[in-house]
Design a protein that fits this description.
Length: about 350
């Protein structure tokens, strides 16, 4: 196995802390321009998450960890309320920005448990970020062991460096396998309607000089039918205690297709994506975004509407492996998930 220190293709950082505070790479502008925006209030961070300036579950969690630094400062400077009340209120406000990415909840819960948020939050947030990058590299190394020679992979949405602290989960696996010469071809689904695949995943591959092919989401079935895909590799916004997962809408259809065609299906995600309170996928809140994100303007103010759920749930029985930094769980189920949690506690 290659070593973590020798991993390549690690140049992208979507969340940065500079001397004057938090900066986010504005993902709405990619791939056309690379612009970092200064975020200097909890309100600005709430809006940045809600409007997808920063997106991808682990990256949202990291941004929120730095949000705790901002929340502590704001609360300390707010004469109107007691420090802890004001700090918690700001963290709860950040939590309400997007409902499905459980990393947001897990980061903010951890922020609530800091003993001295004013003194410690910044070091803790730096550590949250560093742990995420390290987790992604561990995931890449162990998950790529599952892939044989000349593997053809399909990924969905963007579970890359942009969606994390860096390196990526699903894209970390692909980067690592590519470095080892195991990849024949990479396909990225467009990921309508927001086009995370076309805009963000391909931008990452282009930046790292890794060849990849774009497909329309609806082309996946015929590619699988022709034997052109060996593994579907995706990230997750939430992993339940029975191994069900939530990820970008369209992931479930890929898992059904993969099962039908005998294609392997991998979910790569850090431990911070586990929702210890969700027993099954039915417990996950699926974000519904505005109809106008998918509805052509022509239909505005008519009797035509649109439904826009932006995540879906893939049941554990369709998943070949969940890979976290704590190891590989093949054919996940409730007892294997519980064992994973127990191993981490001890
Ligand atoms: O709506 P988004 O772009 O935040 O959705 C992101 C995804 O669905 C990712 O696949 C998921 O968060 C995992 S990112 C490592």
């Amino acid at each position: 196995m290659i070593k973590k220190e020798t991993l390549l293709y690690d140049s992208i950082r979507p969340v940065i802390w500079r001397d004057d505070g938090l900066y986010l790479l504005d993902q709405r502008e990619l791939p056309m321009q690379e612009v970092y925006r200064h975020i200097n209030s909890t309100q600005a961070l709430y809006e940045a998450i809600k409007d997808m300036m920063v997106r991808g579950a682990p990256a949202i969690g990291i941004a929120a960890a730095y949000g705790a630094v901002i929340a502590a400062k704001e609360s300390a400077e707010d004469p109107g309320s007691n420090f802890i009340d004001g700090y918690y209120q700001r963290l709860d406000y950040l939590l309400s920005s997007r409902p499905t990415a459980i990393n947001l909840f897990n980061a903010l819960e951890a922020a609530k448990n800091l003993t001295d948020p004013i003194g410690n939050a910044l070091d803790w947030a730096h550590e949250w970020l560093a742990n995420d990058i390290a987790a992604n590299k561990s995931i890449g190394l162990s998950a790529s062991e599952l892939l044989g020679a000349n593997t053809n992979v399909l990924t969905h949405c963007n579970a890359g460096a942009l969606a994390t602290g860096g390196y990526g989960t699903a894209l970390g696996v692909i980067r690592c396998a590519y470095q080892q010469g195991k990849i024949n071809r990479i396909y990225a689904g467009e990921t309508r309607p927001w086009n995370q695949g076309a805009r963000l995943t391909l931008w990452e591959f282009q930046k790292d000089n890794i060849p990849a092919s774009l497909i329309a989401d609806s082309a996946a079935a015929s590619l699988m039918h022709k034997g052109m895909i060996d593994w579907v590799i995706v990230g997750a916004d939430s992993i339940c205690m029975n191994g069900d997962i939530a990820n970008k809408v369209g992931t479930y259809s890929l898992a059904v297709l993969a099962k039908h065609h005998g294609v392997k299906f991998m979910v790569a995600a850090p431990m911070t994506t586990i929702d210890a309170n969700a027993q099954t996928g039915a417990d996950i809140i699926i974000e519904q975004r505005a109809a106008d994100e998918i509805l052509p303007e022509y239909y505005a103010n008519t009797q035509i509407n649109a439904l826009n759920p932006v995540f879906d749930v893939t049941p554990a029985e369709l998943i070949s492996a969940i890979v976290t930094e704590k190891g590989v769980i093949e054919l996940p189920n409730a007892s294997k998930m519980q064992q994973l949690i127990n191993n981490v506690k001890h």
